[in-house]
Amino acid sequence: MNVLVTGGAGFIGANLCQELVSRPDAGRVIALDDLSTGFAANLEGTGAELVEGSILDSSLVESLVARVDAVVHLAARPSVPRSLADPVASHHVNATGTVTVLEACRRAGVHVVAASSSSVYGATAVLPKHEQLATRPLSPYAASKLATEAYLLAYGASFGLPALAFRFFNVYGPLQPAGHAYAAVVPAFIDALLRGAPVRVFGDGAQTRDFTYVGTVVRVLADAVLRRVTCAGPVNLAFGTRVSVLDLARQLAGITGRQSAIRHEPPRTGDVRDSQAADGLLRELFPDLAQVPLVEGLERTVEWFRTLPEYHPERPEHAAHAAFGSAEPN
Q: Span 3-172+211-237: which CATH code?
């Protein structure tokens, strides 16, 4: 089976390409990426073919879809803060780009698995969050991801397109970049701890998240493609864990053996207060699924960070810092 992965040079996409290439039932793996947030180096040694281009290029997308049996649509303009800075750009990539991909898939009749987001639940306070809850997006990013899954499921209902929409929660792991304004919380915390810099926490840090290791996520995605799994509604891809941001910081401090000050900053617009997945439907569709525990996943992630040259221990800025959890002026 040949597979196209849009956003294939990104964090999740590159991990998925590596997973697919390792599967005996998978054939050619093509990664389409405009390299706006992904990196060609992520695919080195995977055996995947990188095609540099945009999902908004309908001719390119159609030509690539014609070469495969399935598509995993991960390409997106990520980040709630980035969508607040430029809502139209998020809409173009996440909504219009998805329609471009779906049109090519409809004409070719290929199976499509696509990434939505837990952010679509938004202001819905119920925990754990199950797929039958009303959606109340709090940001343009969340609205654009709701459009992604809605278009996918509508194409399934209208045109018989075999489709599966996953709602990703807080995915973390190797290849997830740090060191930029829109970095996710796990790489941002690891980066700060390894550099001896203050750990930035938005709000009081009591907000909770359902963290999911990328290795687990890509195994589910690969299984979904190779078994041609479909579903008429969205499916949460997380396991019902619930960890506060401050607890995450403490666990990472223990794993890294580094101590840094916590610097509290104002809460960010569009951020959800609490997130926790109901995983009943996921386990029904993937009964043999085994998750990687949070501590183990964080250890693997820190180990990967330590392979990067900028975090080599001989660098002087890795000297001991203030005691973790101590106060620091905002």
A: 3.40.50.720
